[in-house]
Structures
1.
Amino acid sequence: MPQLLPISDFWQAPGPILDVRSPGEYAQGHLSEAISFPLFSDQERAQVGTCYKQQGKETAIELGLELVGPKMASLVKRAKHIAPERQVRVHCWRGGMRSGSVGWLLETSGLEVKLLEGGYKSFRRWVRTILATPRPIIVVGGMTGTGKTDILHALSKLGEQVLDLEGLANHRGSSYGALMLPPQPSTEQFENLIAEQWVDFTPQRPVWIEAESRRVGTCRVPDETMAQMEAANTLEVIRSESERLKLLVDIYGQAELDELVAATERLHKRLGGLRTQEAVQYIKRGELAAAAAIILTYYDRTYRHDLVRRGKQIPQVEISGMSVLQAVQHLLTQVNDWGWCGN
């Protein structure tokens, strides 16, 4: 009989995690370590669900058995390939028939199986609990092009606790944010990824986070996370405009020109028709610094407006002329002097 474990013990158990929900359910959100191991395809799951509603549980179970029967051998074969140590963790949506059936099949075939009590639904309740857990935070603000993401990465390399929201969202948080990056996760999966990092942070040490709006591309920052960020210690890094332009050109100069043009045209209403046209012409001629200078007028104006709206006094840290490492060391000295570093 497969062993049923709560989420805390399920995390610690040995073996790969097999998510036996349909591919569509998996795509919507999943445990980051989980491997999609569907018992039913999306179409088959819909068939069984419709059968359950129209003809009842018993008939739906019979249909499910008909659909699964031809797959049983291949499921076992795949599981043994995934888990050569013959230990697996299995879950479905509620911890019901799908995970129970697969667990029975794999255990009968010689594997040691652990099941997640309450399934993915219990994991999602855990996510909400973890996201609401308070942590000391330092928010790094600054205008576009000041290298905030590079600062976070450098802080992480030095052993600081960092939550890279843009990295988890696969988006840099602007009209140009999706360029050269993989597709974004769903907001649900974004929350899952945040929670799985959040739970591992040491409570007594600060977590560094880049200042973000409520959306990073299509991903919405969890309300619990945003509330903590808005109440957190916040600083603003300052770099010269020439350095900011160089950094932006270094990043976005790797993108295709037609993608840069399309991203610029999306700013038409905010940048204005004439300025948008000017920026596009610069891009087409390969004069990216000139285009970026025009585009920064919008982003700088938006940034200043947001500062005024928040009505919050934010200390500034000048890092012009510094390397990323020098900037990080300077920041660490400053926040230590301000008493923001905790214990």
2.
Amino acid sequence: MKAILALENGTIFEGTSFGAAGTVTGELAFNTAVVGYQELITDPSWKGLFLTYTYSHIGSYGINEEDNESDRPQAAAVIATELSRLHSNWRATESLSDWLARYDVPGIEGIDTRKLTLIIREQGSLRACITTELSAEEAVAAAKAAPTLAGADLATQVSTAAPYHWEGESRAWK
């Protein structure tokens, strides 16, 4: 399915939808990691952001719920150059696309993430819209109308409702 990524500055990228279909707005950010896409998507520090992967190919090892950093995806959307259609890790329980769809998180692939990253580096974190429903002009208008994350109280949105005690082994370096 065709998808559009529209930036508040009027830049338009056309790609292919994965994950959930529909329309979502958020702020652009990028990450240069080669592995750990699931951990990044579920990391609360990405709340409300469109996570752009500069690495060319994501999704190859699928999703394993044991590797989540929180109880659900926190990124508002995922942007990739190419999504793997197959996953091959023996621990995987589903594909990245199916997992994102289950949580109503859209993704777009076929984007020149190098160009997008340069835009972010030069202009800062821009508001954006990913859509499978709107025209390019409507998507730009939606990006311009989207709220910014400046001053947002995101900690209350990503924190646990109550304290809990961890009985497992620490992952911290010793």
3.
Amino acid sequence: MTTNLTLYDLLKTYGIEPAEVRLARHGNKEISVLDTFLEDIEKFTEYTAWQKQGKYGNAKYIAVFCPARGTTSLFLGIWKIDGYIENKELKPNHLALLRKHNLPEIWYKRSVRYNLELTSIMHNLSQRLVIEWGKSTVSWVQSKNKDVVQIKPVNSIGDFTSYDSILLSYSDLQKLITDTDSNASWVNALSLVNGVYLIKYKKDGRLYVGSAYGKGGILGRWASYAKTGHAGNKLLKDLDHHQFEFSILEISPSTMSDDVISRENR
């Protein structure tokens, strides 16, 4: 008889009593959860800290997740809770923190601020552990055990599904290029096709259209971006490449450069 591995099983393995942990699954309403976690951990922690009094109960730790595919969630990390500052005791410097990170100032009047510190507990499973969270109507803060769906290989960005659903952050692109063994389905899919791709500069919404053709296909072209950030394009050199987002506009059946370039121009 086999039993499913659960989140509580893992917590115990790392010396954490599950009863001391609250699970929190942030949505993408005020922030882009995964991007903020990767690019600005200070802002992410501040975002997590402001809640209604009692939201985290008497927990000593909070395990934070972000949305994944369907009803699953991706583990990001575990923060230690060292009490909270009641609303009436908040100081102007706490309001300044909200303003610094462009978070809703109304929280200063309506919320308490939990004292949170990111721990190294289960750090090796960050962005690798996937759990079944449940339907979207389920509360975003829970103290309920969850089944483990998957523990991804190190540097895995998940399985390739389709060309039209590709939306890669720069950090994911680097993982893909750096660790091809952990991302074999992506390597196979992107190295076999040429086509027209799009780079979005998330900071201001600007778009750059490019094309890939010849040996290595789209993967070969994107590898240049992973290495330098700009792949020799003058328009991109002065931009923060960590703000780039990669997608594919069209797959070309032709390997001829003239054909692919004409599609890019169109």
